Structure formats: C-alpha cells, structure tokens
Amino acid sequence: MTAPATSRGLAQAPTSHSKLLAWVHEVAELTTPDQVVWVDGSDEEWQRLTDELVAAGTLVRLDPEHKPNSFWARTDPTDVARVEERTFICSVDEADAGPTNNWMAPDEMKRTMTALYRGCMRGRTMYVIPFVMGPLEAESPMFGVEITDSAYVVASMRIMTRMGAKVLEGMGDDADFVHALHSIGAPLAPGEADVPWPCSQTKYISHFPETREIWSYGSGYGGNSLLGKKCYSLRIASVMARDEGWLAEHMLILKMTSPEGKVHYIAGAFPSACGKTNLAMLEPTIAGWKVETVGDDIAWMRFGDDGRLYALNPEFGLFGVAPGTGWTTNANAMRTLDRGNSVFTNVALTDDGDVWWEGMGEPPAHATDWKGADWTPDSGELSSHGNSRFCTPINQCPILADEYHDPKGVPIDAILFGGRRKTTVPLVTEARDWVHGVYMGATLSSETTAAAAGQVGVVRRDPMAMLPFIGYNAGDYFQHWIEMGKGVDGDAAKLPKIFYVNWFRRDDDGKFLWPGFGENSRVLKWIVERLEGRGAAVETPIGYVPTADALDVEGLGLTRAEIETALKVDIDEWRAELPQITEWFEKFGDKLPAVLWAELDALRARLDGQ
Ligand code: GTP
Ligand code: MN
Ligand code: MN
C-alpha cells in the first residue's frame, strides 16, 4: 500500500496556490514517492542535499582549498548529453512541430509517459522547485515549477535559476507557471540499493507547446533535466515569443566598451559547443577595449518603447562546456569556478581533490577519469567527456555587467550568427540588411559536436543555432524573424545589424586560420566600427567582408596572406553550398517565407555574376 499524498508532505505545503497544489498532488499520486519536499533554496537545504548526494556517491566534495563548496559528479556513461532523437514537440497539429522536430500527438505522448511515470518515484523523494526565469522583479515574472526525483537536479537548479521560497511567495495564489515534470525513471524496490547515477534507458524529453508543459523522463543530464533551461527558456519560450511578438534565442549577450567609453551590446547565436560561453567572457587582446558578460547561452529579446530590441538573460548560472576552458582561452570562466559553489560533471578528479580536463593546462600525473578509472597523460584516452560541464553561479563571474540584473535587458546593436566550418565561411561577414541576415541565420551551418548524442563533425544546417530548440515549425519561425524585422515603428535603423562569423576555418594542414578566443575582440572591434559607419569592407556575393587592412591585427603575428585566407570568399565553395541550401529550404514547403527563396536566388545571381 502506498501512503496517501497528504502524508507525503502536502499537508505542510508552504503555499495556497490551488492549481500548484492540485498538480503536486496529482503527480505524487501518480509517481508514489516516499515523501514530497518543497524546495526553499536555503543554504541549509543546499548543505543537506549535497551531503546526501555525497553519501549516495553521486557527488564527491572537492578540496575547499581549490574549489570551496564544490562537487565532482560522474553520470552513467550512457547519460552524457542532450538526446535530440528522444526530444518531442507534442503540438496538437503535427504541422506545428514542423519538419525539424520529432512529433507525437499530445494525448498519445501523455498516455505513453503516464504509464512510465506510474510509480516511477517509488523509494525516492519528490522535490517541488518553484523557479523564475529572469528577475523576480520583472513586470510579468516568468514562473515555472519543476517537480523532480533527483537531488542532483535540485542542486543544479539552485545554481542555474532563481528559485525557492521567495519565488513561491512571488507566485502568490494564482500566478501562471510552466509545469515542468522530471523523473530519472529509476524507482527503488524496498531494500533495493541505489546506484550513484540512477537513470533509465528509456528517455523522453517532451514539450506540450499549447499548454506550456514539459515532461522529461529517464535522463539526469542537465540539458534533459534542468527544465528551466533548454526546455522552458528556448522550446516553450520560443512558442510564447511567437504568440506575443518577441524572440527566445540560443544567444550569448555581451557588453563591449570602446577606449572612448562608447558602449555596444552584442548578441550571438552559435550552436552548442561553438563558442558562446567563450565569447561572452572574452578578454580583449586589443588595448583599451573592455568586454563584460550579460549572458552566455540564452537571450530573450523584446522591443522596448523606444523601438529598439532589448535582450535579457533569463538564467542565473553558467552551464558551460569544460574541455577547452583554461587560463589562456577563458580566464574569466576559470576565475568564476575558483570561487567555488559549483558542480562539475564528467570531468576528471585529481588526486588532490581538484578537477581537470583537456585544455585546462598542464595535466596531472594521475587522476580519476570521467568513467571512474585511473587516468594518466599516457592513458591514450580523454580524461573528460567531450560534453563535460561546469555549473556555476553567474554572479561569481568577475566581469558580469551590472545590466545583467536589469529586468529591462540591454538594447542590442548587433546580432552574430556563427558556426563551426572548416571551409567556405569567412571569419566575418556583414549582412546586407535584416532579411539577408535572417537568410544567413536560416542557412547557418555547423559541424556537429559532442553536445548532443550522435556523430561528431558532420555539417548540418542549424538555423539561428536553434535547430534542437525551436518549439514550433521552423518555417513559421523564419517568418517570425522576418516580421520582427519590421520593428515596432518600421524604423529599420533601430534594428540590430546582423553579422556571420566563423572562428573555425582551417588551412590545408587542418590548422585553425584564426587564433580565436581573446583575439576575437579584433573582429568585434571591426563590427563596432561598422555599426558606427566606419570600418572598411568589400561587397562580396555573400555580404560585406572586411578588407585585410580593416581588421586590427597589430601584434597578432599573422601574415597578410593568412588574414586574406581567413577572410576569403571562394566562389566555387559557395556555389557548392547552393544545392544544399536548396534542399534545406525545400524541407519547409509552403512554410518557407518567399523572401528567403528570393535571397537564395539573389545570392545565386551574384555568384554567377563573378
Ligand atoms: P553550449 O554551452 O553547448 O551552448 O556551447 P557554447 O557555444 O557556449 O560553446 P563554448 O563557448 O563552451 O565552446 C566550446 C568549444 O569551442 C570549446 O572546445 C572551445 O575551446 C571552442 N572554442 C570557443 N571559442 C573558440 C574560438 O574562438 N576558436 C576556436 N578555435 N575554438 C573555440
Ligand atoms: Mn547552449
Ligand atoms: Mn555555453
């Protein structure tokens, strides 16, 4: 006999929000946990949860000398990344999920998952996490409640979102909220011993856009389980944004100040593991320029009363790719992590109680790798999974901009699109106008990375770096972007200018043509000059590309020929893209905005004219 829900903690519910209470009751009845805990977000709670996770073997406490109040976690080796094949947009009409999402009818998905959820929290604690994406002080705070049976998720949500008792209070008795249900799908029979990373081989990451619900099952990995992030702030929010006339995007937001003290805000959409966190925290290598961080992964953009597009970072933490993060590539991330209060997942543990990963610097002589095995530099294996992550509070970032806290967001001057391309795509290109910029975004291409399960290094189209995150038909999404270009008062001059960047082009020997990281400030400088009506460029068939002299390359140590190669527009390579783009566009049938076909035709004509 399972205990009635009242004895599982509902009687002590710290809210009188009747819809929330009813939902918590319903989920507890379905999933039959041993107890229900309302998460308050306090330090005592963090202490208790992390102690429990350490006792369970899920977390290992790091040496506070290196990383105070920080932990090392290893997942099940099959639960390491987002699972795009198992991610569904369950719109009522299949056409609304479009050709780029997996779809299942909402009632069918709910039937399937209800069967999985039945009794799935047996032997475990069900946590109720009230959270808000963006500041609680916002005019209309964007509430969510995640129910989960994973204490790792609770701890991570405390880092990644504003959550707990204050948020619950802010919800009052009747605030709307996104219902986000998560289970690792690993019930425990009486007396059954737990494993350090319980999860299920059956996984579903489902979204119900019409009812703004998220149902996730079977995975503990962050992208699948921290439902405020990709699931809410991108997939569900993109649908809200379509309906309400704003944009929810997979973008970093940075503040750049020139030596003269002029401020520009730049947003950038690059696919997962293609450089957003690095660019957001960049240390300029050019004298007098300053970069501050507003966001590293998600931007919500709305028009302000002044007709400009304002971007807000709805998150509270950084969930960054660990490998490649080091003192030479991203010192600000390293400084953020050294302040502690972080969870590291699937990196290596050093013998002195610190973490290490490839790209951090000198390897330790011995460590425990992400699979729990002995590791030495001669092991011939990577110590850390390619998608291993750090989860750390954003307010520890030493260059966090004050504007991060402003519910209004920051007015965006430039939007960057970019991907990981060995060939073809030059270092930077400026779009001819908004619609051309939307075309650039819609045809964005990148080689796949370890951030999602599947093959790595294959070129795929990843529109606006949102392929795995658009919560509706991507053709409609392109149309929405076109509509946004009309602005509030039709004044195109107030819109951000759009650029396309590629830090990943290589020479014939496979070496990166551009040093990247802090040196990307040189590209940002050119972009700022273009915004200010300066900065020399040549008009090419694909847009405006800097002349070799226009980039500030002082002290960079590249030859002019190398810079020209990085900037080169190779007509034959671009011609070879055309059939791929045609094929891509054809996927969308009638949904593809005609102006994007017109852009492709115009590009073909310009290439033919060469
Ligand atoms: P998600 O957090 O998954 O959305 O990805 P992200 O876009 O934030 O990626 P991140 O900044 O963490 O970069 C991931 C990888 O790109 C790491 O391996 C970095 O070393 C590499 N990278 C980032 N910036 C540059 C760059 O300017 N040049 C080169 N060559 N590599 C870079
Ligand atoms: Mn991301
Ligand atoms: Mn990132």
Helix content: 25-40%
Give the percentage of residues in beta strands: 15-25%
Largest sheet entry: 8 strands, mixed
**How many β-strands, per DSSP?**
31
Function: Catalyzes the conversion of oxaloacetate (OAA) to phosphoenolpyruvate (PEP), the rate-limiting step in the metabolic pathway that produces glucose from lactate and other precursors derived from the citric acid cycle.
EC number: 4.1.1.32
InterPro entries: PEP_carboxykin_GTP_CS, PEP_carboxykinase_C, PEP_carboxykinase_GTP, PEP_carboxykinase_GTP_C, PEP_carboxykinase_GTP_N, PEP_carboxykinase_N
Subunit structure: Monomer.
Report what the structure shows.
This protein has 610 residues and is α+β, with helices and mostly antiparallel strands. The chain has two domains: 5-57 and 83-244, Phosphoenolpyruvate Carboxykinase, domain 1 (3-Layer(aba) Sandwich), CATH 3.40.449.10; 247-317 and 402-605, Phosphoenolpyruvate Carboxykinase, domain 3 (Alpha-Beta Complex). It is built from 15 helices and 31 strands. Strands 1, 4, 5, 6, 7, 8, 9 and 10 form an eight-stranded mixed sheet that branches. A six-stranded mixed sheet has the order 14-12-13-25-29-26, sandwiched between helices. A five-stranded mixed sheet has the order 2-3-18-23-17. A hairpin with a 5-residue loop joins strand 12 and strand 13. Helix 14 packs antiparallel against helix 15 (594-608). The termini are far apart. The model is unreliable at 1-6 (pLDDT under 50). The structure holds guanosine-5'-triphosphate (GTP) and manganese (II) ion (MN) (2 copies). Its main location: cytoplasm. Its EC number is 4.1.1.32. Monomer.
